[in-house]
Amino acid sequence: MSREVLEKKIKVLHVVGAMNAAGLETLIMNIYRNIDRSKIQFDFVVQTTEKCFYDDEIIEMGGRIISHPKPKKGLRRYKDALEKTIKEYGPYDAIHSHVLFFSGVVLPVAKKQNIPIRIAHSHNTSDSKTDSILRKIYRQFMRKEILKNSTHLIGCSKEAGEYVFGNSPVKLGAAKHFPNAIDLTKYKNLSKDKSYLIKELEISTDATIIGHIGRFTRQKNHVFIIEIFSAFLKEDPNAHLVLVGDGDERDNIVKLVHEKRLGNNVHFLGLRKDIEYILSSIDVFLFPSLYEGLGIVLVEAQAAGVPCVISKQIPVEADLDIGLVKSLNLSDGTQSWISAIKESMIIDTPKWDNLELALIDCGYDINASSQRLLNIYCGDE
């Protein structure tokens, strides 16, 4: 690609932690795959030197990955690195910051470097930190910096927007709801077919398959998932649990599974690119998160026609309201969760036309979201 052609494109700098397979990263990649790349180029600032799940695909699509020092090594070092990146790889038409409250560091640098479109994007309803006095001061200060230096505030749910940007009428009026959209074409002709996982796992054709997809972090509540499944297995000895993902807590969960002697029935599938086919193979999707900005995988599960049993901590926007979701309190006992799983297993799969209409009405069509984001980058929204 010639420099002349490149300069005609809208150049956007995404600021993330690392481009691994998780909710916000999946959204960015869904956008990148479907946005008009003849009009736009994405670059990525990351806080790691390790190769990540989406790196190869980003490079194949013409994006660049620029490593910065972790903020804990010093804010001055991070700010200097960001300024250098903007000067060397820019000029940028937009900066899109996905790093929660830390956007309060990113956006002032972007404003100083005259980037016209400066987006703060909230993807979660918690930063997983304790509510210490210092943490509260940090959040308050960063919120002020975000509001002062951003041109656009967007959140994947109402709760996610309020968490980072505040809940006063002025702030709520400024923040826009931007759902975590998915590629509907992947699910249009997808049929329920348990044989996909049955063959891979070499389990019986009449097995009950419960699935969970998510990073192995405290947020996703894997310990509770194992607790629920262990009790469910006593009632259905032919049940199997598939866990898709990776993360710091994986080794602890593997150890817990072996301690409970569940190794023959719990399957760790790692990071996968065939999520829609895995979803088409399971009977129930289990999602008892402690908190979520939205939970894009819950949207994907419903798109695949899978009944879902979730915690009430999940924002209501993630429920397509088509009868596939049952929500419970985390304080409810395991028997309540087991009952919900059993009730969900007899739910009829909705027709695709109804699913598609609900997904579009709720704002989960990636084509519409990509165009909307392009309009923001161009300054038209």
Automatic annotation (TrEMBL):
Signal sequence, renumbered to the chain: none
Family label: Belongs to the glycosyltransferase group 1 family. Glycosyltransferase 4 subfamily.
Annotated PANTHER family: SLL1723 PROTEIN, SULFOQUINOVOSYL TRANSFERASE SQD2
Name of the protein: Glycosyltransferase family 1 protein
Gene3D superfamilies: Glycogen Phosphorylase B
UniProt xrefs under InterPro entries: Glyco_trans_1 (IPR001296), Glyco_trans_4-like_N (IPR028098), Glycosyltransferase_grp1 (IPR050194)
Start and end residues of each Glycosyltransferase subfamily 4-like N-terminal domain: 23-185
Residue ranges constituting the Glycosyl transferase family domain according to the UniProt record: 198-316
